[in-house]
From TrEMBL:
One of its GO terms (molecular function) is electron transfer activity. Keywords: 4Fe-4S, Electron transport, Iron, Iron-sulfur, Metal-binding, Repeat, Transport. This is Na+-translocating ferredoxin:NAD+ oxidoreductase subunit C. Residues 345-375, 385-414 form the 4Fe-4S ferredoxin-type domain. InterPro entries: 4Fe4S_Fe-S-bd (IPR017896), 4Fe4S_Fe_S_CS (IPR017900), Ion_transpt_RnfC/RsxC (IPR010208), Nuo51_FMN-bd (IPR011538), Nuo51_FMN-bd_sf (IPR037225), RnfC_N (IPR026902), Soluble_ligand-bd (IPR019554). HAMAP family: RsxC_RnfC (MF_00461). One of its GO terms (cellular component) is membrane. It holds the Pfam family SLBB. It comes from the Bacteria. The keyword Chloroplast does not apply.
Length: 429
């Protein structure tokens, strides 16, 4: 694919096996952790809940239920800050320390009708692990006129620092492959491609041995942001998703390897999505890959990794390229892949200078945009013109800001421009 950059990998937790995080004393569980409609609470303050119990749901098709991640008492239902920067109605559960679970029961995907499998995936609250957190049952229900012929399982994990997917491939490979086969069966697709960057040779070798040729495990040259499904489709199949379009439009469905594992858990075991692997890294004393319950405060995970190493200047949800800096303690949600801590030695606020028209941002942009022009339009509040220059196609990858010699905050400006365009009721062009 065109553009892209090669930032340092900084995968300092790549050899750290997944550890089960300690249960939090209190879990804050937002009722919207996915693209689509916010769930309505199904419990009230004072109710006792068990882990895996459904506590929120929506009648909207583009939504998934929310489940309790610990057993205990609902002590509050209030608006809380999410790692995405949104304030979301959330259910606060005080742990009873028992970790009691509701009963779960899986189904046999080979003997169950498609509708039952999709219902099971939805009822277990599965949403995409790749960042967008798109409801998985929706992605597995493409329009009838869209002919899907390839499923790609995304094992790229191209963002620096994050190793959660890498460890999951090494430790849960069989479940990932079974989840991938469920996806292919639902879509009526025979060809499954598992795409992994070549800086993960151990995962490539291991999954090739497990698949025994039934799944095409392909190695790709390491390049950021290859994990974006549009760029991945281009790199693997040389198919280009049209601007404003979806992978459906070129006959492809892409799922993250973490999503494939969650699909396995839901279908074979009936286990709802109440925990995920989170890389806790950067300037903490003992960086780790932790299997953390949804709703666990970031501070709890940082403490479990030995606390801050030096004075923390930034705590980022996600990686350094696309992550969101936090200004207060927030909980782990379904889309949380990493908690990145940066101390005073790593965080430097560079002085912004005038654009020198070097064109590096244009060369690096994998979407073929002109970031410096868009940034200037946003500053002038010329949102109509910015739409004409396809600002809504920006995927916030950060390549433009990474290469800018003038330190222009291009990503922040373009994000602001997109938010303003949406608030004005503008449509993507």
């Amino acid at each position: 694919f065109r553009g892209g950059v090669h930032p340092p990998h900084s995968k300092i937790t790549v050899s750290e096996k997944i550890q089960i995080a300690k249960l939090p004393q209190r879990a804050v569980i937002p009722l919207r952790q996915h693209i689509g409609a916010t769930c309505e609470p199904l419990v009230e303050e004072g109710d006792h809940v068990k882990a895996g119990q459904k506590i929120g749901d929506s009648t909207s098709f583009v939504s998934v239920p929310i489940h309790a991640s610990i057993s205990g008492t609902v002590v509050g239902i209030s608006t809380q800050l999410s790692p995405t920067g949104d304030e979301v109605q959330s259910i606060i559960i005080e742990s009873d320390g028992k970790d009691e679970w509701v009963g779960t029961k899986g189904i046999d995907p080979e003997k169950s009708p498609k509708e039952q499998i999709l219902k099971t995936i939805r009822e277990c609250g599965v949403a995409g692990f790749g960042g967008a957190a798109f409801p998985t049952h929706v992605k597995l229900s493409p329009p009838k006129e869209k002919k899907i012929d390839v499923v790609i399982i995304n094992g790229e994990e191209c963002e620096p620092y994050i190793t959660a997917d890498h460890r999951l491939m090494l430790e849960e490979g069989e479940k990932i492959l079974k989840g991938a086969r469920i996806v292919a069966g639902l879509l009526g697709v025979e060809r499954i491609i598992l795409a992994i960057e070549n800086n993960k040779k151990d995962a490539l070798d291991y999954l090739r041995s497990l698949s025994n040729g039934s799944i095409d495990v392909v190695s790709l040259k390491t390049k950021y942001p290859q994990g974006d499904e549009r760029h991945l489709i281009k790199a693997v199949l040389n198919r280009e998703v049209p601007r404003g379009g979806l992978p459906f439009d070129v006959g492809v469905v892409v799922h993250n390897i973490g999503t494939a594992k969650a699909i396995y858990d839901a279908v074979y075991q009936g286990i709802p999505l109440v925990e995920r692997v989170v890389t806790v890294t950067g300037d903490v004393h003992v960086p780790k890959n932790l299997l953390a319950r949804i709703g666990t405060p970031f501070s709890h995970l940082i403490e479990e990794c030995g606390g801050f190493k030096g004075e923390a200047k930034k705590i980022i949800s996600g990686g350094p390229m696309m992550g969101i800096a936090q200004y207060k303690d927030v909980p782990v949600v379904k889309g949380t892949s990493c908690v990145l801590v940066l101390n005073e030695q790593r965080v430097k606020i560079a002085e912004e200078k005038a654009c020198i028209r070097c064109g590096k941002c244009i060369e690096a942009c994998p979407m073929g945009l002109m970031p410096t022009v868009l940034a200037a339009l946003v500053r002038k509040k010329s949102f109509d013109t910015a739409l004409e220059y396809s600002i809504m196609s920006c995927d916030d990858c950060g390549c433009c800001a990474y290469v800018c010699p003038s330190n222009i905050p291009l990503v922040q400006l373009l994000r602001y421009g997109k938010v303003c365009s949406r608030s004005l009721g503008k449509e993507s062009r």
